[in-house]
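Protocol check, entry for the methods section draft. Step 1: assemble the input record (protein sequence plus ligand SMILES). Step 2: submit for complex structure prediction. Step 3: store the structure tokens unaltered in the notebook. Ligand used here: magnesium ion. Step 1 record:
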Amino acid sequence: MISADNRVLVVNGYEGIGIPLKGQHMESPSTLRALTEEVVKFRDARDWKQFHNAKDLAIALSIESAELLELFLWQDADAVDHVTKSNTGRQRLSEELADILIFVLYLSHESGIDLVQAVEQKLKINDAKYPVAKSYGVSKKYTELE
Ligand SMILES: [Mg+2]
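Step 3, stored output:
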């Protein structure tokens, strides 16, 4: 598969659309920082920074999240399986996940938030809220854990 910047991505389990099968992993040269630099470069080449205030980035992120939900709206279990397992469904899913991540990267970049640090901090908070001993195999909200 050739990425937008013409790098060749090595994909295990590639089935024609550049998305690895479930349980397999894509080898990617990108780190979060490199990915952020790529999307900022894409944006700046188009002079779109002027539109990227926090409010509009948050709205765009929400809209892209809604587009993800739209893939599953009114779908029965078989159709949901189609989205997650077929090449065409996985392509659409891949594109919506990418759209979401792109806006997450823009918003964190413009806000000066280190996403790796933010996720690590949030995992610590969640670990305190959901200790394994109380939450293992349990889907309850932390306020309802016994
Ligand atoms: Mg989209």
